[in-house]
Amino acid sequence: MFEPRSAFVDAGNVRLHYLEWDPAYAHMSMADPDVAPDYGEATDDIPVVLLHGLAATADTWRLTAEYLYPRHPLLAFDLRGHGSSAQPESGYDPKTVAEDIISGMAALGLGQVAVVGHGWGARVALVLAARHPALVSHLVLVDCPHVEPRHWPGMTRERFIREKVSSVLYPSRAAYLEALRAEMPFTWTPEIEPIVLTYIRDLPDGTVQERLRPEQQCAIRESLWEDRALTYYGKLSCPVLLVPAADRPLPGEEPPERLEHADEFAAAKGQMAAQVARAIQNCSVLWMPDTAHDIQLQHPQALGEAIVKFLQE
């Protein structure tokens, strides 16, 4: 497995950590990790910017990157408040986070790129592409939450903001891993463990906690409640690939009446993916039924190869 280069970039008023994969620059990365490569002169393959999901880190892309970097230079950012990036008190709405990435790209000398986002990172990628169409050649939205939470049956603002926020202190890393295994409904592989351990930090008393603080989680979820994601799709001008963890809805199939269980959310995701695909002028969909939200961990090869094929088309 090719080890990515780890570095930092000042992106406006926030310092972002990122991982960079490119075999052509492996010797440079080892010689001086503070020297960023000049992508514009070295390769005709368009760089790919990878944005992780809520409470994850850039490391979540390590498995998928194995199938991407032989063809494209890759940069995966720790988004504001996540991983080793700065944790300012504010600025956790999709527009501000998207502008962080734009500033980071400019500081690294990046021009037009392909953008791949997962989950919440896909919402950030969507906003980025809609606001800066000249800078995005292709857009890949991996299990993007197209369904605006205000439209979820029975959902209230307060419930959405507070319901899923994690403030759990785990007694050890082993306890955290055990809890995560129970949440992930797919086969756990040895390669996943070091990735998800980057999602947490060790506290002085030996306990561990997610790096993304509870108040930041609340700020992100509040911004998602206020955000009007459906207004962005019609503004996209680049080719778009949707990768929902859902099956293609059947003709005439009605959306679920409630959203409480995994199968109901999967059905809703399928319905919304089909709806937004019709609103995008150049869109294709890779349906991935019987798949968990973390497609990049469960099916990294299928996802990586699909992205490479999409970028070649």
From TrEMBL:
Transmembrane segments: none annotated. GO terms for biological process: acylglycerol catabolic process. InterPro entries: AB_hydrolase_1, AB_hydrolase_fold, AB_hydrolase_sf, Epox_hydrolase-like. Residues 47-159 form the AB hydrolase-1 domain. GO terms for molecular function: monoacylglycerol lipase activity. GO terms for cellular component: membrane. PANTHER family: MONOACYLGLYCEROL LIPASE (PTHR43798), MONOACYLGLYCEROL LIPASE ABHD6 (PTHR43798:SF5). This is AB hydrolase-1 domain-containing protein. It comes from Dictyobacter kobayashii.
